[in-house]
Amino acid sequence: MEYLKKYPKLFQWLFLLAVFFGLCFAIDVPETYKFIRGQAEFVKDPNQSVYFFLGKEVRYYAFDVFWRLPPLLGWLPIWINDSLFFLMNEWMPMEFWNEDTQEFKTRPLLLQISRNLTSFMTFLIELIREILLGGLETIVAFTSWDFIDAYPWLELPGLPWTIVAAGATILSFKLSGKGLALFAGLTMIYISVFGQWKPSMQTLSFILVAAPLSFIFGLGLGIAAYKSKRVEKALYPILLVMQTMPQYAVLVPALVLFGVGDHAAVIITMVVAVPPMILLTILGLRAIPPEVIEAGRMSGCTNWQLMVKVLIPTARRDILIGVNQVIMVCFSMAVISAFIGAKGLGFNLLLALNQLNIGLALEAGLCISLIAILLDKMSLAWANKQTDYFGNLTFFQRNKNIIFFAASVVIGIILAYVGTFIFKGSFNYLFEVPHNKGISTADFWNKGVDWIFDTFFVYIKAFNTWLIVDVLQPMRALYLRMPAVATLVLVVGAGYIIGGIRSALVVCGLTLFIALSPWWDRALVTFYMATFGVVVSCLIGFTVGTLCFQNKKSAAFMLGVCDIFQTFPSFVYLIPVMMLFGITDTSVLIAVIVYATIPATRYTIEGLRSVPIGLHEAATMSGVNKFQRLTKIEFPLAFPHMMLGLNQTIVFALFMVIIGAFIGTEDLGQYILKALSDKNGAGIGLTLGICVAFIGLIFDNLIRTWVGQRKKQLGID
Amino acid sequence: MSETVIKCESVFKIFGENAKKMLEEANGKVDAKTFQEKGCIVGVNNASFEVAKGEMLVVMGLSGSGKSTLLRCISRLTDATGGKIFIEGQDLLELNNKELIDLRRNKMGMVFQSFALLPHKTVVENIAFPLQVKGTSTEDSISRAMEMVKLVGLDGRENYFPRELSGGQQQRVGIARSLAVEPDIWFLDEPFSALDPLIRKEMQDEFLRLQEKLQKTIMFITHDFDEALKLADRIAIMKDGIIEQLDTPANIVLNPATEYVRKFTEEVPREKVLVIEDVMDAPSKDNLGDLKVSKDEIIENVAEKILTQEKNVEVIDSNNNVVGSIKPSKIIDTVFGGRKNGS
């Protein structure tokens, strides 16, 4: 009894676990139950049960309610799909003037809006692409093909790559200094020399359209949410879901609404990139000291002046960090959008991976990674740059960057012109190195991969077999063996113990949504892969983080490494693992582990770092040794922050598991991939995305509630 | 009596959801405790006072006493829950947004504890900010701001950014900014609290010098009783939102109205606060010496002169009329005796 009083929570947990395992053993596996693979469920099987809701037919295998809940939400994807179809193709038909056929045509309103929007986006992308790469679509858009035929010189030649490279170098120099400038220059030269110029510029033009638009919308919505509680409350759940929704899943509805191609990708990229911008805008505006706002008011600012002249400039850094986020999200979407036909590096990467040409994939991947690092460093440098005073400088000093750029334009044009004489008959390498006509190391890498396979095949195979047969399959079987009711009890119980009735209800709602969707089994598989990844990642991350923390230099170095790895679009991680482990679950899991270890390591170091110096000194003066200090002082205090790292680790792991479907897993991600090529996939894709987001949110809710309480107890914030 | 610039009539500020309704029900008698039980926090409780033109009213209180809230009610950075506030006869709470902005642009200046400078603007741009917001041309506003830079002694640093200045210098910028539009009313919210003691003293002297020159109507907030004594024409001492006493420094030291006020006055060196007039006796011819002192002298400044005299000293006013006399023993009594009484 004394123990019970001393550790009430511990006994609650034990009781919960006892109930959970009790339920697991009490409920038998139904004889008819088997994990449904592939297309089987779409075949009309007489054993299936059927119900109708809202006129939609839902077919499913019925089991004991305790074992698996019936998919009462099975109508939802079909309904979403039909509604979208109805909205796009039948709702509110109106007369619209058609420019091409010169007559009025009847079209549904939403379709027309979507078409106008997409054509506007296409125009923007084309415009920037033609500045970077040359072309004539933009001019044709304003004139006509006949006009171009009459004046062929109007065709834009595009900027020579030398000028773009010089521009990037000068901009980097202005933002940060020599180091970044050197990196920018080398990156650009690498891209060009290795023949990735065209796809890179296509990707860049995509970002140049998506990022500014996302920034404007995000800033606007962020300000609106800052000013009005109601707007904030309305936005909050959307922001929350979007943060844990795999980027991959939003692609599917985009297909239906906007079709295939760059324009659809840009629009959907905005959907993904706006939420972080909103969050950081709100955060930045909230962080402004109230006295600064009062000073603005007392200076006689109108609301508009207060916003433009006081609030936004004061929150500049946070807002620019938001810009950094926007750029990075846009970039990773630019890669993933290859799945819905966006051109650029992502498309090449996807193609290479599909052909199993690891060498080509590696080159594209390296290119993507370099650009990602460059964009990240440049935008961060911009955010951290302090305004300088220019009043006392001469004209040359003030405008030297512009002057240098103008000079490089002139030199670039001359070089390109000279190039026409040097490279007569072949490609003008001083103007543009055509795609795949530069140096290629693909063969080298491919041979390397072959060599690895030849040499280590036995070991890799043995490891693979061991992992799959002895670890993964039993684990998977255990997860699938959980009756739905037991899982529900476990999750809700945990919610209740951690956060009381409120948390329990939220978590219960989220879990029920998944349990009542038709994909509970798949969700379990997703969950098992994520769990495996998270456990290993945390073990590695916490250990590496703790070890690196012992020394200031190694801690800073490790954080830098985390920074760099975090900028890579998740898709890139699949290349090396496919190279080493081929197409297996092991590959996916290793990618998951690598990707999810980043936040685990980062948060461990940051958490340990945040322990106040005073406490260190107090501990040292009490005579603790290093190990005691770590276990008695640093870990307990850093633990809440490390738990936030766990939260991030889970989200990262889920993202990667979903993308891993590209290699071939049997989880929710595979269905999302399938939905991408399915004409009626929109509803399925969206519902699946929400399912994944909800898995993330369940843990998000539990961990955040716990961390909040713990931080309050410890008095740190 | 010169004209009244700020006038408060039973001003209340209560934070909480049903504050307005609860205040109406309380019928002018607000008890902080009962309000707190119902989830409301009383910031300012029934404050009534006037500030005359050119006068400096120092509001003194510890943190949480509602002094800053009171100031924010008068500058209408927050809206008072009840009561009336008049600025030069205008009902402040009746003003619409545009009139309020107009009032702030032309009549009011405010200095903040944390300086509240705009981090992205240079010293001169910060000072010119209120003018530019008003629509003054860049050239005019900058030249006016440069005058202010000189006034607060920051010449040569006008192109620095706030992050490059020390605390004292930053507050000089804050002061200059608040004075840029030549306001009649000057609000200072603990302007020197964030500075270290040496700089604080320097800034107080600087502030007195400025006020001598400018003669603004001032509301000055502080939690430092010594600062209040040093600067004030009158002091208002606040506790839990209530003004405990509002009087001249001398009267507060000599006749504390409540126990709470007395606690502050105990440790105050009286000779630094009181003037001869406060302690003199009626004129008498007994044992009179040659020395004459003005009734407005602070005791500390003349104590040595009086104490070296064996005889009584005559007290005169500015027109050289005799208004009283003082014994040396009285000075000793004031300097040493007062504190004993208090404890």
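Chain B touches chain A through 34 residues (CB under 8 Å).
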